[in-house]
Amino acid sequence: MAYNNIKFVNEDGIGILTISRPKALNALNTETVTELNDCVGKIEADESVKVVIITGEGAKSFVAGADIVEMSTKNPVEGRKFGKISQDTFTRIENLPQPVIAAVNGYALGGGCELACACDFRYAAENAKFGQPEVGLGITPGFGGTQRLPRVVGRGYGKEMIFRANMIDAQEAHRIGLVNKVVPQEELMDTCKKVAKEIMGNAPIAVQLAKTAINRGINCDVVTGIAYEDEVFALCFSTEDQKEGMDAFVNKRAKHFQGK
Ligand code: COA
């Protein structure tokens, strides 16, 4: 599939996925979400991509939400179809085997905030702004906002953002745990790449299993989550990376993980 509204490059194992529809501040219309879904499917199957960074084109916007112009004429059936492909795409991002970092370079509103929340964690530029403006447009968040946002920031802040439909700045987003770090705009991508490389230095299977355990555990009771952790912990002892990591420690030498 040729992409009109997204870009993807693999920079030495770091997959950089850019939402690129600057004339609409990278708002997500059906075409963009369809391309995103296709691209995420390819990333899923591409073992040469070790970590993914999702960002928006330009210095102003990450993603300014779902496309309001396109949505304005939808009937319930069309609304459901649009919601479904977007939900499926975001869930696919959440469950990618690779860690996914959101590099929030500007407005992350509605679907943009929801996209950021589907990533494993978020770094923001100083000019980033977050919000869920949907109830001000007569709709609820529809791409996971009522579910993922409260799981990231807690129910109180999640409900406040959704009910008020206001915008919060990067510092406030940092204070409530929506983003892990705030950096100057010009340092955002380098900071995310540095963290991506740090992650890539660790045992890939262990990172992937830890991600799965966290994602599964967050959606079930703690006893079931701990039982799942038991299984992935045990599984690690069947990998060459476990032998390598521990042998390197014991023999005081550098480690070289192969993802086996
Ligand atoms: N859907 C469709 N188009 C959008 C959009 C969206 N979510 N967000 C921005 N755009 C378009 C604008 O319509 C405008 O297009 P135009 O030049 O053809 O008129 C262009 O992007 C630039 O946006 P503009 O509003 O002129 O920029 P601004 O700097 O004045 O304001 C925002 C920026 C983000 C505050 C404002 O665009 C906005 O509120 N967007 C909607 C955010 C939203 O509610 N998202 C949730 C949707 S569920």
From TrEMBL:
Organism whose genome encodes this protein: Megasphaera elsdenii CAG:570
Domain of life, source organism: Bacteria
Annotated Gene3D superfamilies: 2-enoyl-CoA Hydratase, Chain A, domain 1, Lyase 2-enoyl-coa Hydratase, Chain A, domain 2
One Gene Ontology biological process: fatty acid beta-oxidation
Designated name of the protein: 3-hydroxybutyryl-CoA dehydratase
Transmembrane regions listed in the UniProt entry: none
Similarity field: Belongs to the enoyl-CoA hydratase/isomerase family.
PANTHER family according to UniProt: ENOYL-COA HYDRATASE, MITOCHONDRIAL (PTHR11941:SF54), ENOYL-COA HYDRATASE-RELATED (PTHR11941)
Key word Lyase present: yes
Taxonomic lineage of the native organism: Bacteria, Bacillati, Bacillota, Negativicutes, Veillonellales
Keyword Lyase: yes
GO terms of molecular function: hydro-lyase activity
